[in-house]
């Protein structure tokens, strides 16, 4: 499938989720069931199948790890500078975290898996695991500190470790390290489930999108979109290239970091004192715009 067809396929699936939500075909209960399948079954299956047969020394490299952290923290610093003049804490906190917090799981990893080879997919799984353990606690800490929320950081952050992709990644790397095999029947079943990660996740994202125009601020939303889906992949390309990374690392790293703002940031915003209307709009606009920017990214990386 060509890059243009793939992005068209993504747009159709996102649109399907939006239409299904607006017509009531996918209500909140059905959406939650689809999300459960994607988050607890399809994504863990994809993470495990992409890592267990790959040489661990070839997928966990210094340039992958340090490149990921460098891009994330560079974008945090840039986000603080760009959004420093926003007066309201609730607005400023949301703008900052949504300028770097990427949708690694529901868009990044499935897209890498459907576009690039097994090595890049394994590296994307590493980015999903390590990136989640980095960006989620960071987002929680920033929202709590900026909004002065009366919430325990420890209680919020510990939930990250419980996400199913973490044990799946650990299991895959363990199998890789010890050279353990998986029975062919089980492997085929896991691969079939993993193959559903992209379509189901995209429908879920589409069904979760909503734009609350009452909180629409063109300048703030525009700056978040500019940082997240335009600047961040460019910074990622510069950082991974400067480190002399293998091409599979560049493919995985840039694509994952080019993903739009994660839907989960809207949930954290509701819990930790941010502006939910702005958060909803940012997720919506970055996701829609990213269809075009990801087309450019994949066209360059393929």
Automatic annotation (TrEMBL):
Transmembrane segments: 34-53, 59-82, 94-113, 125-144, 165-186, 192-209, 221-243, 281-301
Membrane-topology annotation of the record: Multi-pass membrane protein
Gene3D superfamilies: 1.20.1530.20
One Pfam family this sequence matches: Mem_trans
Superkingdom of the source species: Archaea
Protein's cellular compartments: Cell membrane
Any one GO CC term of the record: plasma membrane
Main location per the UniProt record: membrane
Gene Ontology terms describing biological process: transmembrane transport
Keywords: Cell membrane, Membrane, Transmembrane, Transmembrane helix, Transport
Family annotation (PANTHER family): AUXIN EFFLUX CARRIER FAMILY PROTEIN (PTHR36838), TRANSPORTER AUXIN EFFLUX CARRIER EC FAMILY (PTHR36838:SF3)
Protein family membership: Belongs to the auxin efflux carrier (TC 2.A.69) family.
Protein name in UniProt: Malonate transporter
């Amino acid at each position: 499938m060509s890059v243009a067809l793939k992005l068209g396929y993504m747009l159709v699936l996102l649109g399907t989720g939006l239409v299904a939500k607006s017509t009531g075909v996918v209500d909140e209960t059905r959406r939650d069931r689809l999300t459960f399948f994607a988050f607890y079954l399809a994504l863990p299956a994809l993470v495990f199948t992409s890592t267990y047969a790959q040489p661990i020394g070839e997928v966990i490299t210094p340039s992958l790890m340090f490149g990921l952290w460098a891009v994330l923290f560079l974008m945090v610093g840039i986000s603080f500078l760009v959004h420093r003049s926003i007066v309201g804490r609730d607005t400023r906190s949301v703008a900052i975290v949504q300028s770097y917090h990427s949708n690694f799981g529901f868009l990044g990893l499935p897209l890498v898996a459907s576009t690039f080879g097994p090595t890049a997919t394994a590296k994307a799984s590493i980015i999903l695991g390590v990136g989640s353990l980095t960006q989620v606690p960071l987002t929680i800490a920033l929202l709590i500190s900026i909004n002065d929320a009366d919430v325990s950081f420890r209680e919020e952050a510990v939930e990250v470790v419980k996400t199913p992709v973490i044990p799946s990644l650990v299991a895959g790397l363990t199998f890789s390290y010890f050279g353990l095999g998986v029975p062919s029947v089980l492997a085929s079943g896991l691969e079939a489930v993993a193959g559903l990660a992209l379509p189901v996740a995209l429908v879920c994202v589409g069904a979760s999108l909503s734009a609350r125009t009452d909180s629409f601020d063109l300048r703030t939303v525009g700056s978040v979109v500019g940082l997240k889906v335009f600047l961040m992949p460019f910074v990622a390309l510069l950082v991974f290239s400067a480190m002399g990374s293998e091409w599979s690392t560049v493919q995985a790293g840039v694509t994952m970091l080019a993903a739009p703002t994660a839907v989960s940031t809207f949930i954290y915003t509701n819990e930790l004192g941010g502006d939910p209307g702005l958060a909803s709009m940012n997720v919506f606009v970055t996701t829609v715009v990213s269809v075009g920017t990801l087309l450019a990214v994949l066209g360059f990386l393929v």
